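Progress against Task 2.4 (sequence-to-structure conversion) is shown through the following example record, which the project officer requested during the mid-term review.
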Amino acid sequence: MKRPSKAAFTFIFITVVLDMLALGIMVPVLPKLVLQFEDGNMARAAEISGVFGFAWAAMQFAASPLLGILSDRFGRRPVVLLSNLGLGLDYILMAVAPDLSWLFVGRIISGVTAASFSAASAYIADVTEPQHRASRYGMLGAAFGLGFIIGPAVGGFLGGIDLRLPFWVAAALSLANAAYGFFVLPESLPVENRSKFSWQKANPLASLKLLRSHRELFGLAAATFLYFVAHESLPSVFVLYTDYRYRWDETMVGFALAAVGVCSTLVSALLIGRIVSRFGERFALIGGLACGTAGFLIYGMAKTGDTFLCGIPLVALWGLSGPAMQSLMTRRVSPSEQGQLQGAVSSLRGITGMIGPLLFTQTFAIAIQKSNEIALPGAPFLLATLLLVLSLGFSWKFASR
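Structure tokens generated for the chain above:
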């Protein structure tokens, strides 16, 4: 039975934690650094921050399938290690960036190097038996949550000392991780299972063709796309919505985001493996989507902040569905296509990362216009609820029993 060594899986786990930690560190620091470059012009800084976010998502979209294909051709180890090395060097670039143009270049490179998650996911598929993959992907989900719990707190603390300091710390961690992995991370993809490199497959749009190769795979991909779009509502309007509707200050927003991270991490680390083992992947997928739907409905309808907080555990249970979905999809491609599959899924995430912020922020802006006869500030989360209902429908139809 194929099982990852403890050191190898620990390294992959740490890699994802560091990627998410770096992203979390950016949350409180990057906009303030942009604001500093713009001499305190808040409107201009917000506009530029939006462009930075779009560019990062666009590079994720373009680079994820390429890194996935490269990992199918040359193995997972070199792609993961070089991505860590590149991310560390990129943080040094952003730490010393003399102006916005160089900071923008650093953000673009970050979008490329942070796309290594496709190779990391393929690594897990290589070394884990199908029946255990949902549990392993659940641990990667816990790594996501852990990074987002620690990242903003660390970034805020270090940024209070110096806005450049978080980038230096992130660089040191990424470079140390690359050096550590050089000695402990074995290759997971045997030479006989590797595939030839193809620029056509590396094309972010062409890579999506794999998702149409199987009827059930296509249905699960559609459910995944809707899942990803709905998720974009959280980073897009969470802060604006809770400020507008509940008058939450920075402390309360930080508490709520920490609660989201803690609950999500607990679900990923403690529940996914047990639930999938006892009830199966389809149950975890359907149940998770149902909980997410209920949670977003509470978010959109809650008239008080206390009621809003009640939705957090339900949205955290939504995390059951992602690893189950991912595991079901890996069963429908060959060993030599696991990297391509993860790259295609990452491309879906990249597409939603580009359209989601615009979709939900514009929905929120329209919903709170004073000219509206009926005020509906929760419209973005109600839209996310509808998207999850559609995702639930696709999952019900195409997930194997």
